[in-house]
Design brief:
globular; Rossmann fold; 5-stranded parallel β-sheet; alpha/beta; 3 domains; binds thiamine diphosphate
Length: 628
């Protein structure tokens, strides 16, 4: 059927029976595609009926549908003219895993980071009012994303402005892991209230006795049920914020969804519809293990068996090191913002449940909470993806760094993340961490060094310290069986000596730089290679020494060039009157890198060994001609 669905208008024409068929087909296509391409599975399976209902009741792209996080937008993409390209999902040049304005008129607002939908939708609604237009604006936000403070800043403002806006709360009780926190408990209370349940049972029994009375009576009974449910279990929190609360309703009952949404279209002020869905709905492995199938690598669609990688990932090494450290040091605790599994902290959470804190999808709070912990003598391993800690730059500066607190920032997914693309690449953290006075910025060249850096970080006595590591396997087959070592702060490591050029590489770029040096050697250029380890403080003595002795420097980093490690070296040379030293910066390009496989992207931006060798060779030849 999807071949015949070119736009939401085609969905509107379908009969009830055809819709059921279409829902099954959407699930099949999503499961098959994600099994080959990897991606978000369980969140999408959970919103199939909701998406169908939205497209039947509303009129996209005139009406604006704004998905929070956007990882659940696959059914929406399939119904809005992207079925034929869906097999390119998340691949280079293919369709994105998130809503994307450049991709379709049906994606009015790009997303990836959570809790933005209500604020963005309010912007659309206010602009509509100012322009004298009349379309609808709908934000769909998950219960996980509702734990982010930004969502409440949005709700607060929605209640104040009071304009027509529909917020749909897609409540499946899961974030990536089971949702946590008081808001999650409150929502559970709304959906499991004994009064509501008993009442619902009575109504269903009544409905069961009514079929002979026909559809209209059933519909009426449904409506009475939903209306009364609202009376017996009002969503006080939302009502107090100024939104009329409706629900909870069954998010897999297409008829109820359509009917309720049609009613809400007529409502003049802001409303919140509480929809209860099952994450992973319709695919047993995902229903049983919504965490694994939230975002999943390739898997066997028949059995649900996920593919196992060979080498360990940096994330796994981090998780093991965190446990090892916590076993040795009582005051070490771990903080995550709704990413227990993804940041490798599951083992830690099991082993040290009282020293582990999932704060919800709330990075700002997570960092200030860590600052409080540190001020009171704890050593928090504050473990957040590079891209998501962008949310908390102020908290890092104001709450942690100004007070010189010993928070250990463990920044996973530093550098290109691959298929999640532009909004999720960790392209900026070297820049924004390095600019903060007193904050130590480290990046390891391999798994062994990550372990040593974490050990160093918890023993650091000089305030905040960070270590960033990539979404990648470690290069080693196995880590050496030895105790972790302290690395002197600001000390680099020279790995190779050569007189024509010095390659100063940071983190993930050290090994490709070493390989590039081999290529340079075969071209008659001898290169020093330094594992910089630190972007702040720099190993000033070593770098100034190389500037004087070798006289030609290349920095290599997986971060934007603006303000990054190369900039730090440039500023150092400048401070010491060496700004005329030829310096070339190899870094990510000055643009938002799209989605694709990480290795493919690194190759395209010239950050693999051949790319580094090629750029270095060209530049060294030019600079040899200019300066000799
Ligand atoms: C600011 C931010 N922090 C963390 C994440 C990572 N993340 C992606 S989806 C997700 C859980 C979302 O849960 P929910 O909103 O309930 O949607 P569901 O997947 O359950 O449908 C998290 C934590 C993110 N996208 N944005």
């Amino acid at each position: 059927m999807l071949e015949r669905i070119h736009s939401p208008a085609d969905v509107k024409r379908l009969s009830r029976a055809e819709l059921v068929e279409l829902a099954a087909e959407l699930r099949r296509v999503i499961i098959q595609t994600v099994s080959r391409r990897a991606g978000h599975l369980a969140p999408n399976l959970g919103v199939v009926e909701l998406t169908l209902a939205l497209h039947r009741v509303f009129d996209s792209p005139r009406d604006k549908l704004i998905w929070d996080v956007g990882h659940q937008s696959y059914p929406h993409k399939l119904l809005t003219g992207r079925y034929e390209r869906f097999d390119t999902l998340r691949s280079y040049g293919g369709i994105a895993g998130y809503p994307c304005r450049a991709e379709s008129d049906h994606d009015p607002f790009g997303t990836c980071h959570g809790s933005t939908s209500i604020s963005a939708a309010l912007g659309f609604a206010v602009a509509r009012d100012l322009e004298g237009q009349s379309h609808h604006v709908v934000a769909v936000i998950g219960d996980g994303a509702l734990t982010g403070g930004l969502a409440f800043e949005g709700l607060n403002n929605v209640g104040e402005i009071g304009t027509r806006l529909i917020v749909i709360l897609n409540d499946n009780e899961w974030s990536i892991s089971p949702n946590v926190g008081a808001i999650a408990r409150y929502l559970t209370k709304l959906t499991t209230s004994r009064v509501y349940r008993a009442f619902e049972r009575d109504v269903y029994e009544l409905l069961g006795k009514l079929p002979s009375l026909g559809r209209r009576v059933q519909r009426l009974a449904h409506r009475i049920k939903e209306g009364l449910a609202n009376l017996v279990v009002p969503g006080v929190l939302f009502e107090e914020l100024g939104l009329k609360y409706f629900g909870p309703i069954d998010g897999h009952d297409l008829a109820v969804l359509e009917e309720t949404l049609s009613d809400l279209r007529r409502f003049e002020g802001p409303v919140l519809l509480h929809v209860v869905t099952k994450k992973g709905k319709g695919y047993a492995p995902a229903e049983q293990d919504a965490g694994t199938f939230h975002g999943v690598g390739t898997f066997d669609p028949e059995t649900g068996a996920t593919s196992k990688g060979g080498k360990k990932t940096y994330t796994q090494v981090f998780g093991e090191a965190a446990i090892e450290i916590a076993e040795k040091l009582d005051h070490v605790v771990a903080v995550t913002a709704a990413m227990t599994d993804n940041t490798g902290l599951k083992g830690f959470s099991k082993k040290f449940p009282h020293r582990f804190f999932d704060v919800g999808m709330a990075e700002e709070h997570g960092v200030t909470f860590s600052a409080g912990l540190a001020a009171a003598g704890m050593i928090p391993l504050t473990t957040i993806y590079s891209t998501f800690i962008q949310r908390a730059i102020d908290q890092i500066i104001h709450d942690v760094a100004v007070q010189d607190l010993h928070v250990v920032f463990c920044l996973d997914r530093g550098g290109l993340v691959g298929e999640d693309g532009a909004p999720q690449h960790g392209a900026f953290d070297i820049t924004f961490m390095r600019m903060i006075p007193g904050l130590v910025v480290m990046a390891p060249k391999n798994g062994e060094e990550l372990r040593d850096m974490l050990w160093t970080a918890v023993h650091h006595r000089g305030g905040p310290i960070s270590v960033r590591y990539p979404r990648a396997n470690i290069p080693e087959e196995a880590l050496p069986a030895r105790e972790p070592r302290l690395i002197p702060i600001g000390q680099s490591e020279q790995l190779r000596a050569g007189g024509d050029v010095a390659l100063l590489a940071l983190g993930t770029m050290v090994l490709p730089a070493l390989q590039a040096a081999e290529t340079l050697q075969s071209e008659g250029i001898s290169a020093t290679v330094v594992n910089a380890r630190f972007a702040s403080p720099l190993d000033e003595r070593a770098i100034l020494g190389l500037a004087r002795s070798v006289g030609r420097l290349i920095t290599v980093e997986e971060n934007v060039p603006m303000g990054g490690f190369g900039s730090a070296v440039h500023e150092l040379l400048d401070r010491h009157g060496l700004s005329t030293t030829p310096l070339f910066r190899i870094a990510l390009p000055e643009l938002f890198v799209p989605h694709g496989k990480r290795d493919e992207l690194l190759q395209k931006v010239g950050l693999d060994a051949p790319g580094i060798a090629r750029q270095a060779l060209e530049w060294v030849r030019v600079s040899q001609r200019q300066y000799t």
